Amino acid sequence: MKKIIFILSLLILISSGSFAATFPEEFSNDIKIQSSRTCNLNAGLSFVYNTYYMFDKHVPVDAFLSNLVQTDLNMQFPDATLKNSEDFKKWYKGIGDSIKTQTHTVKSLKVKYGPHKSLLVHVIVHWQAENMKGEYISFLAEQNWTLVEEKGQLKIKDYLVKEAK
């Protein structure tokens, strides 16, 4: 009997429009943008976390290359600037040769829509590592990424790293 009363009450509320609300402008704007793109903000969040997973597990370099644009790549680290796949391969090999283990812990992550089907990422990440000499390394980084859609897949165009203040 209690279930019937609850269901009837719920039906009365729904039919009376008590749950109806005007759509917030932010929601309407997001839906409009989302409908013109393959990748939304959640795809960007997932992409960022997956990228850090790939770094932490030191996956084969070819897995990374499919996540980078082929032209106009701009990756800037404190110790290197990478402009193409060959630069990335050399840099990544250097990381593999000098770092035994590492972790990336996201402290703050914001993704927003950018122009021309891009996503703009701002992240604060704590990188910790053990080098081949057994020494501990720690770096709090502020990163700004630009992700672009290519054939329905996100790719890194810009990846700018500096020390977080």
Describe the structure.
- The chain is an alpha+beta fold and 165 residues long.
- It has a single domain (38-163), classed as Nuclear Transport Factor 2, Chain: A, CATH 3.10.450.50.
- It has helices at residues 2-15, 25-35, 41-57, 61-65, 85-98, and strands at 74-77, 80-82, 99-113, 118-131, 136-150, 153-163.
- The radius of gyration is 22 Å and the shape is elongated.
- The protein starts with a helix and ends with a strand.
- The model has no long low-confidence stretch (mean pLDDT 91).
Tell me, rounded to a whole number, the average pLDDT.
91
Helix coverage percent of residues?
A: 25-40%
Radius of gyration: 22 Å
CATH-defined architecture: Roll
Number of domains: 1
CATH topology annotation: Nuclear Transport Factor 2, Chain: A
Shape: elongated
Structural class by sheet pairing and helices: alpha+beta
Number of helices: 5
Major pleated sheet:
6 strands, mixed
**Quick one: CATH class?**
Alpha Beta
Strand-residue proportion: 35-45%
Order of helices and strands: HHHHEEHEEEE
Q: How many strand segments?
A: 6
Measured between the Cα atoms of the first and last residue, the distance is: 61 Å
Uncertain residue segments: none
Task: Order the strands across the largest sheet as they lie in space.
Answer: 2-1-6-5-4-3
